[in-house]
Specification:
By secondary structure, the chain is mainly α. The protein has one domain. Helices cover about 55% and strands about 0% of the residues. It has six helices and no strands. It has helices at about 5-20, 25-45, 55-65, 80-85, 90-95, 100-115. α2 packs across α6. The longest helix has 18 residues, at about 5-20. The protein starts with a helix and ends in an 11-residue tail after the last helix. The mean pLDDT is about 85.
């Protein structure tokens, strides 16, 4: 008889955890990537970095390593609220996403890069 309440509690905990999982929004990631990331890269000698320039595995490795600008910075720094606050005066997308949690924005950009990768569902460019 004790097994049933235990199973019900376990099921409830599983439902609660799955309800908290964030479902990334690749469209929101695309807007941020194209409006913030690309605007900076175009201004630099590197030029724009299209999502289709890498495979899904290469993007996953890049994001997992969390190294940007040849390891001088982290990728997450450019998706953080402090960074967005620092550029919002000159970038409407950064202002639009000012209150978006960092982890959500990271997952959104990740979803866009995976979808737009060379071997993704919709290889994308930012030009």
């Amino acid at each position: 008889m004790r097994l049933i309440p235990t199973l019900l509690a376990a099921a409830a905990a599983t439902v609660a955890l799955s309800a908290q999982a964030y479902d990334a929004d690749w469209k929101r990631g695309r807007i941020y990537y194209r409006s913030v990331c690309t605007s900076c890269h175009v201004a630099m000698p590197v030029g724009s970095i299209n999502p289709s320039s890498k495979t899904k595995a290469e993007w996953a490795t890049y994001l997992q390593a969390d190294k940007h600008a040849k390891g001088k910075d982290t990728v997450k720094a450019y998706l953080s609220k402090p960074y967005r606050a620092s550029i919002k005066a000159g970038n409407k997308a950064a202002e639009k996403f000012a209150d978006t949690p960092d982890a959500e924005l990271f997952e959104d950009v990740k979803a866009f890069l995976q979808k737009g990768a060379k071997d993704g569902d919709s290889p994308a460019s930012c030009t």
